[in-house]
Design a protein that fits this description.
The protein has 414 residues and is of the alpha/beta class. Among the domains are: 2-58 and 81-96, no CATH class; 246-328. Helix content is 47%, strand content 9%. The strands form two sheets. The protein has a six-stranded mixed sheet. A two-stranded parallel ribbon has the order 4-5. Helix 17 links the parallel strand 6 and strand 7 (382-386). The two termini are 21 Å apart.
């Protein structure tokens, strides 16, 4: 480890750490780049892999008594020059950012008081994720504060600059987060082309629900009708539905409308909403017969056939309540919008995006992933997710995006 420049005392403490907590205490107290090298080594990466990832160079051993070349005098560098050269190294850029050559540049940072401007800087490891060429979708994960959002912003900028005609979509879970991303992109590069709607060249930023609504509103009448029939059944094919957040109230109405025979553990809005989203919408279930056969992978609660029949009675009553109220939940909206996009492409009208970048992906539900999968399905396009995990750093790995747009979990160094 000394070849990588890790101080012997830090290396000794890391090797002596008997618990994970003790090891992380060492890495947290070490300079950033040394801590990252140790974390990579602990995760199974070789020293060479870790140094290459962080763009570090091996220390050259110093030799004593080497004869000086006749007629030459080594140029002595000043302390300022040594410090400046040190800050220019990749390892230093993990902790420091270059702001300019003049006093005015420093004054602007000090007096401007804009701490947000610093959030758009990348260190060398993040550059790899933002600038790299990825064959297919990839998943960027890490703990809170590890710079995943910054990587998403830079990745969007890179994709937009590589091809000015590209349609880059950046989405997240809420409208508030989306507005924050737009502001950060403008701060990163005021010259970036920000698209006004999906399908335009440039970078379009929008919350996932707003995006789904725009895609559905942009579909043709036949595409909407086919999508409603595919997701909600024939009874909804000609319905005019508007998004409504009161799904809990509608589940309560549905429970009081039918004789379902379910115990309290199942006869509650929380369980029913989760079952509806994870099983029914995710598999486009439209009938009792389909629901009785569909796998319920990962649901945890075992449902016998009679219980499934009871659950489906409530689901039918729920959908009837929506038809009467002419409403649709935002999760259903995502599923229907995804189906509309598939029908759009099948009719020859083409896709709306070339690249999809997702911030805070851990908040998305199955229907959202189905929707995004419908927007992105060609292998030459890019999809990148940045979910929050419990890890202490960021890492990227490829993940499958087939069928339901599933995600694989990634921990640091995986």
């Amino acid at each position: 480890m000394e070849e990588a420049g890790i101080k012997p005392g830090i290396a000794k403490k890391a090797l002596a750490a008997a618990t994970e907590a003790a090891f992380h205490k060492v890495t947290d107290q070490a300079p950033d780049w040394q801590g990252l090298v140790l974390l990579n080594l602990a995760a199974g990466k070789s020293l060479e892999e870790s140094m290459d990832e962080l763009r570090l160079t091996r220390r050259q051993p110093e030799t004593e008594g080497s004869p000086a070349i006749s007629g030459t005098t080594p140029e002595e560098k000043t302390e300022d020059q040594k410090i400046a050269e040190g800050f220019a190294k990749p390892a230093a850029r993990l902790q420091f950012a270059y702001i300019g050559d003049t006093a005015d540049a420093l004054r602007e940072v000090i007096e401007g008081g804009d701490a947000d401007a610093w959030r758009t800087f990348l260190h060398p490891e993040q550059h790899r994720y933002a600038d790299g060429s990825w064959n297919g979708p990839f998943h960027l994960s890490g703990g809170a504060g590890t710079g995943k959002t910054v990587v998403v912003l830079h990745r969007a900028k890179v994709l937009a600059e590589r091809n000015t005609a590209a349609r880059v979509l950046v989405t997240t879970f809420t409208r508030t987060l989306a507005l924050s991303l737009v502001q950060s992109l403008s701060r990163l590069d005021p010259g970036l082309a920000i698209a006004a709607k999906p399908g335009e060249s440039g970078i379009y930023v929008g919350g996932i629900d707003s995006l789904a609504l725009q895609v559905l509103n942009g579909a043709g009448a036949a595409e909407k009708q086919a999508a409603l029939r595919e997701i909600l059944g024939d009874a909804h094919a000609n319905a005019q539905l508007r998004p409504d957040m009161d799904s809990v109230g509608k589940w309560k109405v549905a429970l009081g409308t039918v004789d379902h025979g379910l115990e309290a553990e199942l006869a509650n809005p929380t369980f029913l909403e989760q079952e509806y989203v994870a099983v029914v919408l995710a598999n486009a279930v439209k009938s009792k017969e389909e629901y009785l056969k569909v796998p319920r992978v990962g649901r945890g609660t075992l449902l016998t056939r009679p219980k499934r029949v009871g659950v489906w009675k409530v689901i039918e009553a729920y959908r009837q309540t929506e038809r009467v109220a002419e409403s649709i939940s935002f999760t259903e909206l995502a599923a229907v919008a995804g189906a509309a996009q598939r029908h759009r492409e099948a009719s020859g009208r083409g896709s709306l995006v070339d690249h999809v970048l997702i911030d805070e992906a851990q908040d998305l539900r199955a229907a959202h992933w189905l929707f995004l999968r419908a927007l992105w399905w060609h292998p030459e396009r890019t999809i990148c997710s940045s979910p929050r995990t419990h890890t202490s750093g960021s890492t990227a790995r490829k993940f499958p995006c087939q069928g339901t747009g599933s995600r694989s979990s990634a921990a640091r160094g995986a």
